[in-house]
């Protein structure tokens, strides 16, 4: 997404979070948010070069560490206050792959909405070391280490070392790039599943900033092992995306086109004629 999109949206993010200020737990957390929002305004509107701080918000019984000026505060608003996708999950024993875990907001939302007793295991993949540390911190702070496992790993169509970048310091845009300077380990999802003895998957979530097609090309067996796929995909990549997932038996349950040029798509894999999935 162009950086102008973030600047244009910054005011809406601040107003939206302030409108939900009553959901924050205690005066300290509200004060932290308001001070952090003020600092964001100074950086965005006045271009004052403040150094980002890692801060902690508490709301709805959750504890979330985020880094200022990286888009993470805006993502808290988007995930917890704007969106409420009804994701089909089994009543218990759900296995989830959260690919592009960032600081863990999607997983925290799942646990907040559905309850931890509904999940058997959640695996989160975040290759950027700095973002990964905040992810681990958020899982531990919310008592989720027992069934949530964070992996410092990129997933693609090959194994080896690849490079990442965070455009303008925005960790929410962490992406694999030929111009990246952060080396990270990379595997295919199919190889990772074999190594970690992960079988069927109830929900396969993907948000990898434009790298979704290489990831899926390295995961043909994983596609047939998952019942639902929830993915952010570039709109211009949709034709090739559907060609990749179609043979695995997926049909679209919902699709939402975003102002960023991405589309959020929820798909379900139907049973085949012989009854297998």
Q: How many H/I helices?
A: 9
Number of domains: 2
Category from helices, strands and their pairing: alpha/beta
Distance between the termini: 36 Å
- Helix percent reads 25-40%
What does this structure look like?
This protein has 277 residues and is α/β, with parallel strands linked by helices. It folds into 2 domains: 1-82, no CATH class; 90-277, 3-Layer(aba) Sandwich (Rossmann fold). 36% of the residues lie in helices and 27% in strands. It is built from 9 helices and 13 strands. It has helices at residues 3-19, 26-46, 72-82, 105-114, 129-141, 189-195, 212-217, 220-225, 238-245; strands at 54-59, 62-67, 94-99, 119-125, 148-151, 154-155, 160-165, 175-176, 182-187, 201-206, 226-234, 250-257, 262-269. A 7-stranded mixed β-sheet has the order 5-4-3-10-11-13-12, sandwiched between helices. Strand 12 (250-257) and strand 13 form a beta hairpin. It is globular and about 50 Å long.
Condensed summary:
This protein is α/β, with parallel strands linked by helices. It contains nine helices and 13 strands. The radius of gyration is 19 Å and the shape is globular.
Keywords:
disordered N terminus, seven-stranded mixed beta sheet, four-stranded mixed beta sheet, 9 helices, 36% helix, disordered C terminus, Rossmann fold
Topology:
Elements: H1 3-19, H2 26-46, E1 54-59, E2 62-67, H3 72-82, E3 94-99, H4 105-114, E4 119-125, H5 129-141, E5 148-151, E6 154-155, E7 160-165, E8 175-176, E9 182-187, H6 189-195, E10 201-206, H7 212-217, H8 220-225, E11 226-234, H9 238-245, E12 250-257, E13 262-269
Parallel strand pairs: 3-4, 3-10, 4-5, 6-9, 10-11
Antiparallel strand pairs: 1-2, 7-8, 7-9, 11-13, 12-13
């Amino acid at each position: 997404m162009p950086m102008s999109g973030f600047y244009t949206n910054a005011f809406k993010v601040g107003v939206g979070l302030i409108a939900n200020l009553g959901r924050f737990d205690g005066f300290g957390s509200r004060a932290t948010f308001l001070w952090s929002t003020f600092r964001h305004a100074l950086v965005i509107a006045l271009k004052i070069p403040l150094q980002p701080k890692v801060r902690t918000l508490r709301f709805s019984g959750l504890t979330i560490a985020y880094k200022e000026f990286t888009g993470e505060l805006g993502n808290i608003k988007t995930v917890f206050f704007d969106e409420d996708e009804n994701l089909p999950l089994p009543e218990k024993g759900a296995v989830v792959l959260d690919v592009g875990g960032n600081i863990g907001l999607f997983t925290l939302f799942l646990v907040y909405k559905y309850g931890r007793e509904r999940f058997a295991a959640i695996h989160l993949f975040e290759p950027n070391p700095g973002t990964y540390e905040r992810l681990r911190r958020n899982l531990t702070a919310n008592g989720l280490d027992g069934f949530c496992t964070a992996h410092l790993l990129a997933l693609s169509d090959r194994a080896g070392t690849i490079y990442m970048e965070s455009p303008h310091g925005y960790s929410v845009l962490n992406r694999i790039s030929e111009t990246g300077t952060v080396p990270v380990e990379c595997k295919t999802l199919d190889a990772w599943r074999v190594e970690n003895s992960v079988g069927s998957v109830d929900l396969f979530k993907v948000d990898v900033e434009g790298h979704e097609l290489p990831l899926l090309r390295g995961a043909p067996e994983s596609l047939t092992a998952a019942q639902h796929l929830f993915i952010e995909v570039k709109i211009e990549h949709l034709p090739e995306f559907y060609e990749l997932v179609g043979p695995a038996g997926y049909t679209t349950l919902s699709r939402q086109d975003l102002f960023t040029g991405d589309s959020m798509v929820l798909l379900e894999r139907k049973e085949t004629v012989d009854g297998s999935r």
